[in-house]
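Researcher: Go.
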Amino acid sequence: MADQTPPAFAFDGTWPFTGTPEINGHPAASVTAFSVKADEGGIPVVTVTLVGPGALRLLLGSARVQVADETAEALRSLGWTPPAER
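Model: Structure:
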């Protein structure tokens, strides 16, 4: 059997929001919301929220920001380049 390319976005869950969305086959555990817009005859656009609005605000002179491995892997599959480690 030939390798199958995973869908760009997949979600199998119920309401209220349960389950873990996948981006290019990678679980994105940090997704707190998503929306899908599909114009007639157009390509669907999925918008994901990784942290809910107002969920976190820090003002620090310096800090190390960490992203869950699953989320970083999903973001890298979309072309994201993480900042260099210090």
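Model: The longest strand covers residues 33-37.
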